[in-house]
Amino acid sequence: MTAGATSSRPSKADAPRYLPIAEHGLIGDLRSAALIGTNGTIDWYCCGRFDAPSVFASILDADRGGSFALAPDVPVRTKQFYFPDTNILITRFYADDGVGEVQDFMPVVDDSREADRHRLIRRVLCVRGSLPFTARVAPRFDYGRQDHTVGTRQGQTVFESPDLSLALTSSVPVETDGPDVRASFKLLEGESAVFALDRIGGTVEPRSCALTEAEDLFDATVRYWRRWLSRSRYRGRWREMVHRSALTLKLLTYAPTGALVAAPTTSLPEQIGGERNWDYRYVWVRDAAFCIYALLRLGFTDEAEAFVNFLSEKALGPDCRLQIMYGVDGRRELPEEELPHLEGHAGSAPVRIGNDAVGQLQLDIYGALIDCLYLYDKWGQPLSSGHWDTVVELVDWVCENWDQPDEGVWETRGGRKKFLYSQLMCWVAIERAMRIARRRGLPADMTRWGGARDTIYRRIMRRGWSAERNAFVQHEGEDVLDAAVLMMPLAKFVSPTDPKWLSTLDALGEDLVSDSLVYRYDPQASPDGLRGEEGTFSICSFWYVEALARAGRLDEARLAFEKMLTYANHLGLYAEEIGRTGEQTGNFPQAFTHLALISAAFNLDRALG
């Protein structure tokens, strides 16, 4: 989307302590990312990698988190948009005496010799009249747990903490204010200023960033993103939204390993004041199939190959012990910890780092992984013999264990159950492996696999069906509905026009759909071990669009899709959920949501012809 958000900036005394989650844009360098509010403040940034300790985290604690504020020192209206076809974010300020803008970007480093350099660049321009600006750089290292010193080196301001040092280059004079740095300056029409924040240490020395160099880096960053996006093959409806989603997914990629994080943030609440706050800066195996499908459909084969290689090297270990998530470097240990010194976004404690769900049993990930490998084998590169040996071991394990209760796709903390979605994806794991074996002529115990596949099918049709609800339900033993069953026709388990499926679609529409928005399930009817409510789940809303389209209900599907597009923020970005009054909630932006948008757009566009 090129149209930006417009908002009035109140006086400093009246300014809210927290911007809404959706009032942010994202920049990054394929290793880490930063969120910039519509007020010009960077209030989330982890340097070097997505899951590194934060440097700026005022989105989680306005007082203790740290931030990099940069804006005119007069009342203004603001708009924010992306430089077309790039991930360069522009925040514009409209005042009585002039118009200015801040261009935020992080250069993408292709040179391996510069792999440890991470730069965050802020260009300030006055495009009309004149404007006074104020900058305040207030890092708070390690989620605000580490003190730092401020000094100078080679004409730069250096912030040094025990574990990380950052150098600030500025084209305007700055002054130290305790642990922070401030600058006040005035720009006339056509004038500009630059601030650059660099990680230093080891082999990385401080580097200046003059106005001309900043302009060169800006131009190089524009070329990088436009060159990347030019590989897209998508020419259908909603091209702008699809391409913004693709650019966002690319931003959430960790280039050194090919991993894709679920979101670049932690602990943004699913409900303001609630406890459903989780760390999403990790790689979920569940995202794999959706990621590969979306990227391959658009033509981004390199990213799909890199993600498959990550899964092969990290997830498909020699012991075939599959976890639901991994660190961006493939590590398996992600201990969960609460940070009581941070108040949480708008007072939504606790703030968590790490994720204890890493130890949960979620059987659906086997289907997600093998479906991912099936798609890659079909549209990308053929699986190697080593990969096939691992697939065989995984499928043999699924044949033995598919009937176990587990925590399910939604990572509930209320005890294990026999979830329909988990059984469905175990069916997918076996069925897709059989497809690969037949097409490639690869060795497999087809008799055993086929028997297990058919047993799962009959079990779902018998015990996953509720005659009382006239619908497929969340898990055996109760009549609770769950939006996860929307994957049944998408995974080709059931015909999208099967009478049982059509009645399920109607039941979901009555119980879980609100103005095209879809709730995952009803926590009151199916306790998940957590207090509070949650919003509608955006991936489920896009699944609903696909299910309607596949069922031939194209007018409903298109209307639901168009409505969903109105809930995007001013930049076309989505968080995990949408609250009761249309606000974005949960970690932001959410890869799962953008993956589902691409898939829904692609399939709805194809159905419409």
Task: Explain what the structure shows.
The chain has 14 helices and 29 strands. The longest helix has 21 residues, at 420-440. With 609 residues, the chain is an alpha+beta fold. Helix 4 (287-298) packs parallel to helix 6 (364-379), helix 12 packs antiparallel against helix 13 and helix 13 (554-566) runs antiparallel to helix 14. It is 32% helix and 22% strand. Strands 1, 6, 7, 8, 9, 10, 11, 12, 13, 14, 15 and 16 form a twelve-stranded antiparallel beta sheet that branches. Strands 2-3-4-5 form a four-stranded antiparallel beta sheet. Strand 3 and strand 4 form a beta hairpin. It starts with 6 loop residues before the first strand and ends with a helix.
Major pleated sheet: 12 strands, antiparallel
Helix-and-strand structural type:
alpha+beta
- Rg over alpha carbons: 25 Å
Strand elements, count: 29
The percent range for strand residues is 15-25%
Low-confidence stretches: none
Give the rounded overall mean pLDDT: 92
The separation of the N and C termini measures 24 Å
Number of separate helices: 14
Helix content: 25-40%
Which shape, going by the Cα principal axes?
A: globular
Any descriptors?
609 residues; alpha+beta; twelve-stranded antiparallel β-sheet; four-stranded antiparallel β-sheet
Summarize the structure.
32% of the residues lie in helices and 22% in strands. It is an alpha+beta fold and 609 residues long.
Layout of secondary structure:
Blueprint: E1 7-9, E2 24-28, E3 33-37, E4 42-46, E5 54-56, E6 67-72, E7 76-82, E8 89-95, E9 98-105, E10 119-138, H1 141-144, E11 149-153, E12 156-160, E13 165-170, E14 175-177, E15 180-188, E16 192-200, H2 211-229, H3 239-251, E17 253-254, E18 259-260, E19 283-284, H4 287-298, H5 301-315, E20 325-326, E21 337-338, E22 352-353, H6 364-379, H7 385-401, H8 420-440, H9 446-463, E23 465-466, E24 471-472, H10 487-490, H11 499-511, E25 513-514, E26 517-518, E27 536-537, H12 538-550, H13 554-566, E28 577-578, E29 584-585, H14 591-608
